Amino acid sequence: MTKQPFNKDNERANDLIEIIHTDVCGPFSHEARGGYRYFIAFTDDFSRYGYVYLIRHKSEAFEKFKEFQNEVQNQLDRMIKFLRSDHGGEYLSQGFDSHLREFGIISQLTPPYTPQMNGVSERRNRTLPDMVRSMMCRSTLPVSFWGHALETAAHILNKVPTKLASRSWSLHFDERIKEFGSAKSGFEPCVYTKFSGSIVTFLVLYVDDILLIGNDMPTLQSVKAWLSKCFQMKDLGEAAYIHGIKIYRNRTRRLIGLSQSTYIDQILKRFRMDESKKGFIPMQHGIVLSKAQCPISSQDKDIMKSVPYAFAIGSIMYAMLCTRPDVAYPIAASDAAKEAVWLKNFITDLRVVASISRPVDIYCDNSGAVAQAKEPREHHMSRHVLRKFHLIREIIGRGDVRICKNPTDENVADPLTKLLARVKHEVHANSIGMQYLDTSR
């Protein structure tokens, strides 16, 4: 016999302090300054804004509730409607019950031994002490200062944005932009499209930043005017950066690209390499790195501690991962196929590339991966990856992608994964569309 799962679809409040969750936490093994060994928490269901009060005994819960009630009702000019708590004796006193009845507050008591029904307060009682422990460990203060750390933790928690705020904004924006005639993409929920004959308009929403793309300037201006009526907004002009990556434009040559020159320059200055000689390839061909090059003596290890080698590598990897294409190897072929299907469906939804209806070619220089993807072959060395190949075979069978074998010497993704001679590096880089952009002009 097992316990039935609890229903997680609880109704949320529709307004501030409509429902208040409360619970008492303690006693703690160490007294806080002032002799406090408990705290009582009150959490608003609608906003998740919380209040905490230090108390010496559980019997003080009633007085702290009246203090909390007077504060929030006076500040918000609203009345508390429901008080949700467990069956603790501090909430069952005659005085507490009479007070709730006097102010028309309905007491919602959870069944005994069911903390799941009071999940908001229980989670708050776990989060706050965890934050307090981290603060006390970091500050090295005497343990009696945990009360001050608790109040600070509650203040920090109230400053953290909630998922509800961003979702409410997203739903509101979705309603208003659809009134304008734009439709949300079925494959990318932050992209909206509008078609009117040959005029195409794309709107990309990133939190509260909006990118507008289109082939008709008056239409783009009308979108801006509509948004200005619906929201308080500021026109920042043409987009210059996206996720820290500079957008490069050359209208005379009808070129648009992404440049990480700003971020790379910051890395060079950070590691004092901005005055170094420029190279033609990322790393010299033929260099062999081995464990034998690591410092062995304690003196060399102490010197190496001051060398930010790991930070430099991590900074370069961040730049690489932002704009590098994916490379399809045995397992990555499956992931590349999934990305290709999403990209194909997304572009089809945008209706801007007619040829996207044809299968997307995925090039792989591994013969075994190509053979496994095209036809069933079971081998004891590849049983652990068969599920991946079942997926890519299904995608190929639907006609969404086509996997192709290309010679290793013609694998244009090699500059992103290995050291190459300068000539081969430049040929492959040009083949995948990587060009030097003179952003100084």
From TrEMBL:
Asked if Hydrolase is a keyword of the record, the answer is: yes
Q: Residue limits of the Integrase catalytic domain?
A: 1-180
Q: Which domain of life is it from?
A: Eukaryota
Ordered alphabetically, the record's keywords are: Hydrolase, Metal-binding
Entries under Gene3D superfamilies matching the protein: Ribonuclease H-like superfamily/Ribonuclease H
Q: Name one GO molecular function term.
A: metal ion binding
Record-linked SUPFAM superfamilies: Ribonuclease H-like
PANTHER family in the record = RNA-DIRECTED DNA POLYMERASE (PTHR42648:SF27), TRANSPOSASE, PUTATIVE-RELATED (PTHR42648)
Put simply, this protein is called Integrase catalytic domain-containing protein
Q: Which organism is it from?
A: Centaurea solstitialis
Q: Which lineage do the record's taxonomy fields give for this organism?
A: Eukaryota, Viridiplantae, Streptophyta, Embryophyta, Tracheophyta
